[in-house]
Specification:
Elements: E1 7-11, H1 17-28, H2 36-39, E2 52-56, E3 59-71, E4 75-85, H3 94-108, E5 113-117, H4 120-123, E6 129-130, E7 136-137, E8 147-151, E9 161-164
Length: 167
């Protein structure tokens, strides 16, 4: 029986940045910078305790970054992504552990919801559901069916409007 090597999840920090960028390049390629979601990361700072990396004996093996976003006039939510796991660790639950821990931190910090752009079939296991056509306006073109939300508090139902980088 093969045993899965141990890994630990720690807060993302500047010392991880080269390995994180290499993993994102490997998983998503350079096209990731053209995506609408990237506009919500530019000029923004990740939510420190919710942005995490997984490290095993071979080095960085997974990452999730979460960003604060303003929703409409006064709403506040967390915007998740990207999440990536090295090929050697896919199917070992690394993504699940990263997501659950990041979402838990967002709940603890008082965010009403976590929003992302992704495939519902994949993210529904983490409690995400379609936000609904036109509920959120992103800074560029996006397939509204891919805009997903996970409510963390009752006030999440009131979130609606343009997503932007908090100033």
């Amino acid at each position: 029986m093969n045993t899965i090597p141990a890994y630990e999840i720690v807060p993302d920090s500047p010392e991880h940045s080269d390995a994180v960028e290499a993993l994102y390049d490997d998983v998503f390629g350079p096209g990731r910078f053209a995506k609408t979601a990237e506009r919500l990361r530019e000029g923004n700072s990740p939510i420190a305790d919710a942005s995490l990396v997984a490290i095993d004996s071979e080095g960085l093996t997974g990452v999730v970054r979460v960003w604060p976003v303003k929703v409409g006039e006064g709403g506040r939510a967390a915007f998740l992504g990207p999440i990536a796991v090295a090929e050697r660790r896919r199917g070992n639950g690394v993504a699940f552990k990263l997501m659950e821990r990041a979402i838990g931190v967002c709940r603890e910090q008082g965010y009403a919801a976590v929003i992302l752009v992704g495939d519902h079939e994949y993210y529904e296991r983490f409690g995400f559901h379609p936000a609904g056509d036109g509920r959120f306006l992103l800074p560029g073109p996006v397939d509204q069916k891919r805009v997903l939300i996970r409510d963390l508090a009752d006030r999440a139902a009131k979130l609606k409007g343009e997503l932007s980088v908090p100033r």
